[in-house]
Amino acid sequence: MSSRTPASDRHVTGVVVTADLAEARVYVSVLGSEKQRTATLAGLESARGVLQAKINRELSLRERRPGVRPTMTPSSGASA
């Protein structure tokens, strides 16, 4: 079985930006096994620079742009 998670099973559930704009914590939810959740988070971490560059181009903030920090949504993968 593949450890790849279909895009339809990955969702951004929220973004929290610190008041000083130093960090943007991006919460993601991944439907699947623990291995798939771990792999997805690792993939987002490795793409952090690409994501940051994209955000920097889109934001019109002059001096400060938040650093991106992918984070698993607390309830993601929790069994009911």
Describe the structure using short key phrases.
alpha+beta; 3-stranded mixed beta sheet; GMP Synthetase, Chain A, domain 3; 3 strands; 28% strand; 80 residues
How many strand units? Answer: 3
Major β-sheet annotation: 3 strands, mixed
- Characterize the overall form: elongated
- Can you give the helix content as a percent range? 25-40%
Low-pLDDT runs of 5+ residues are none
Number of folding domains? 1
CATH class: Alpha Beta
The side-by-side strand order for the widest beta sheet comes to 1-2-3
Strand proportion: 25-35%
Order of helices and strands: EEHHE
Mean pLDDT: 80
Strand-pairing-aware structural class: alpha+beta
With helices defined by DSSP (H or I, 4 residues minimum), what is the helix count?
2
CATH architecture level-2 label: 2-Layer Sandwich
Assembly category:
single chain
Task: Report the C-alpha radius of gyration, rounded.
Answer: 14 Å
CATH topology: GMP Synthetase, Chain A, domain 3
Distance between the termini: 24 Å
